[in-house]
Amino acid sequence: xxxxxxxxxxxxKAIDGIAHRxxxxxxxxxxxxxGAAFYFKCENLQRVGAFxxxxxxxxxxxxxxxxxxxxxxNHAQAVANAARLLGLPATIVMPHDAPASKLAxxxxxxxxxxxxxxFAEDREAIAKRIAVERGATIIPPFDHPDIIAGQGTAALExxxxxxxxxxxxxxxxGGGLLSGSAIVARHRNGNCKxxxxxxxxxxxxxxxxxxxxxxxxxxxxxxxxxxQTQHLGQLTFPIIQRDVAGIVTATDDELVDAMQxxxxxxxxxxxxxxxLGFAGARKLPIAGARIGVILSGGNIDAARFxxxxxxxxxxxxxxxxx
Length: 322
Hints:
By secondary structure, this protein is α/β, with parallel strands linked by helices.
């Protein structure tokens, strides 16, 4: 089974009027600092605060009956909200250390939350058990054709707004966003190079890309909680192999630097996972290029955001005013 550009276009119709068409923002200060032209697709302003709503609503709109999902937070919220809108009961398997705001939001959308230990338990096994007990359909966070197609709609809108891009860079966890974006980039602009960026502490995607086979790792310890995946998907990996130019990594310190720069220059709040694309893009040969970056989410507690930024204060110059 594969996912096509037509599938992404069909997903765009399914979510039209439901998902937000998020803005593409720019910053002269960032362009001056990097020597490139950046175009930020602000999925931190999407419903539930993340791109995940696109895939979740697209997938659930085709179903009837109870839903089970597993997620560290953004997919959890997305499935919970989409299920509420469609009148479907949802149970979400979430790690015990998920951000409090994500746990609260998921429950707030009406879903039942089942807690597990991400370092000692298998979330997929828990979800399968619940699905059997309740006769529910499992909606995984990335390895599902309707999820991939839905996530690709963010890149579809980006290319609608900025057709002539030299690079598109996205965060990489399990590969739903990257593979969906790669399908769109391949169709809309064959000269555009697409890259994924994952945490340096968990570079299974990079290792898989270089070795030609899916690499499994232990749960990485990183502030990018949305990218603490252990492997790419059976559906996402072949697309990434075919359409992606490369995969780079970013350290936690680099993620905080990127969060701080976006906050200071553009006055937007992006979570650590959400800035992976921007942090990694700055390592690519982008001088003079036009770069589309998907800021994938903005779900971070205010106290957590402040503590991360303050811990790094004094380690980099304050960005000049825009």
